[in-house]
Amino acid sequence: MTPGQVIIVDNPYGDVHARFGGYEHAVETHAVLQEPPHVAHIQLSPALTADGHYTIAPRLPAGGIQQPSQRIDLSVLVPEGHDLRVRTGAGFIDVHGVRGNVDIKSEGGNIELRGVKGAIQAETTGGAIEASLGRAPHGARQRLATTTGDIDLGIDDDLDAAVDMATSALFATDFSLDVTQHPGEEPNKRARTTVGRNASSLAIESRRGQIRLRRRAGFTSVGGASSDATAKQDGDEDNDSD
User: Contact at 8 Å (CB) between 113 and 36?
Assistant: First the structure.
């Protein structure tokens, strides 16, 4: 791979798990395939696309139809400095510790984000979103959106972002909100707050799901010394390949 090359994972047949993969410009992919006998085989052949992106896109042969018990789940180790784009059908997407911008979308699966060192765009139709965010990149315009699912978001006091939220369900938060009602619209409530400095923006949207915006507290040791750095490392530097 070349430095800065975008990694695209497009898996309509199952889940995608992405983790930080080190500092060398190389992608490592693991696949778990489940197939009944005598069905069209899901093929996996990573390749460079015409626009220079590195693409991991399993596909059935032309005319093949996915069977109910047939799926392929992917685990991808993403090197530092490479942006990641993920697409699934109803598959679950979780991204932990990736050090680049992340753009993910599922047609109906749940999304989990933790320790991402870049700007985030995440969208699902009917699934829920659970995320833990640290300081946003300066000037970033981040967005978490679902049509009907809940959004549960933990953030630091130094997020440094103007936060806009919208839903027709409930807001539950540790932060003070400026809430406005919009009767007859969907979503019918909007809320705004600023966490830290107003140096970026974060939009959180669900038409009908609850939005929970929680403060991530720093850890205090038994001796009374604050260990915020340790807590951040535990929450943000998630480099395992689970």
Answer: no
The CA distance from 112 to 179, in Å, is: 26
DSSP 7-44: EEEEETTS-EEEEE--SSS--EEEEEEE--TTSPPPB-
Query: Model's pTM, two decimal places?
Result: 0.87
Q: How far apart are the first and last CA of the chain?
A: 24
Distance CA 113, CA 95 (A): 5
From CA 174, how far away is CA 179, in angstroms rounded?
14
pLDDT digit string, tens, across residues 84-138: 999 999 999 999 999 999 999 999 999 999 999 999 999 999 899 999 999 989 9
Q: How many angstroms separate the Cα of 16 from the Cα of each of 105, 147, 225?
A: 11, 21, 39
Which phi and psi (to 5°) does residue 161 adopt?
-150, 145
- Report pLDDT digits (tens) over 184-219: 888 999 999 999 999 999 999 999 999 999 998 654
121 class by beta-carbon count within 10 Å (0-12 exposed, 13-18 middle, 19+ buried): middle
The phi, psi pair for 174, rounded to 5°, reads -90, 0
Residues 6+ apart with CB under 8 A from 196: 135, 156, 157, 158, 159, 160, 161
Per-residue tokens: 13: 């047949």
